[in-house]
């Protein structure tokens, strides 16, 4: 099992908490913690709260993957100070495909490095640039009205 710690700006963390509940209605797994950094907190405050959350993970965790929203912002900078080779890693640019993949497979994962790369690939594969309407999906009534 890999522990997951999601550290984001306050309201973003709450949104991901709701998204976790949406995809996992039976409840957030015990190996997932979400920390929303408040505007009045500095890096040390965030680190102290994060360490407390990490200590709550089950003893059979094979490391912790910390996911943050924005590279270079306080949540990310705090997480970077917590990285320990083989024990903790971070992924930045948190998006929904990344989070869902991580939560879905973390309980079965045993290799932190491999798991981190798998989750990163899910994040990348979840991004598409769509710049033109699809021919086969246009609603006929809506198209006729235009």
From TrEMBL:
Any one biological process term the GO annotation gives: phosphoenolpyruvate-dependent sugar phosphotransferase system
GO cellular component: cytoplasm; membrane
Record's keyword annotation contains Cytoplasm: yes
Localization per record: Cytoplasm
Molecular-function GO terms, alphabetical: kinase activity
A Pfam family recorded for this sequence: EIIA-man
This protein's name: PTS mannose transporter subunit IIA
């Amino acid at each position: 099992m890999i522990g997951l710690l999601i550290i984001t700006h306050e309201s973003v963390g709450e949104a991901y908490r709701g998204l976790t509940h949406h995809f996992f209605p039976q409840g957030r797994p015990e190996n997932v913690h979400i920390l929303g950094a408040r505007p009045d907190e500095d890096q040390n405050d965030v680190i102290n709260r994060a360490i407390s959350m990490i200590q709550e993970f089950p003893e059979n965790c094979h490391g912790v993957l910390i996911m943050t929203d924005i590279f270079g912002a306080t949540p990310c900078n705090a997480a970077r100070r917590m990285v320990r080779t083989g024990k903790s890693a971070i992924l930045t640019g948190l998006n929904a495909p990344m989070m869902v993949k991580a939560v879905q497979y973390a309980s079965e994962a045993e290799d932190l490095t491999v798991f981190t790369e798998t989750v990163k690939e899910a994040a990348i594969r979840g991004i598409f640039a769509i710049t033109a309407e699809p021919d086969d999906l246009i609603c006929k009534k809506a198209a006729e009205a235009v």
